[in-house]
Amino acid sequence: MAKRIIYFLILALCVPLISAQVISQQPSVYSVKRMPFNLNGFNNISPVIVQDGIIFCSDRRFSGIEDRTGFDGRRLYNIYIAEKKDTSGFRKPRVVKSDRSNKFNNGPLCFAPDKKTVYFTSEVETGKIAENRNFKNHSGIFIGELSGNDLVSIRPFKYNDPKFDVGQPSISKDGKYLFFASDMPGGQGGSDLYSCEFIKGDWSAPVNLGTRVNSPESENYPYMHPSGKLYFTSNRPGGIGNLDVYFTSLVNGTWEEPNLMSEPINSKADDFAFVAEDNLQKGYFSSNRGNEDDIYQFVSNIIRKASCDTLQENSYCYRFFEENAIKYDSMPFRYEWKFGDGNKAIGPLVEHCFDGPGTYMVQLDVVNLVTKEVTYNEKSETVIVTEIEQPYISAPDSIGTNQKIKLSADKTNLPGWNISQYYWNFGDETIGIGKDIEKSYLKPGTYNIQLIVSAAPEPGGSAREACISKNITVFRQP
Question: What is the pTM of this model?
Answer without folding.
Answer: 0.74
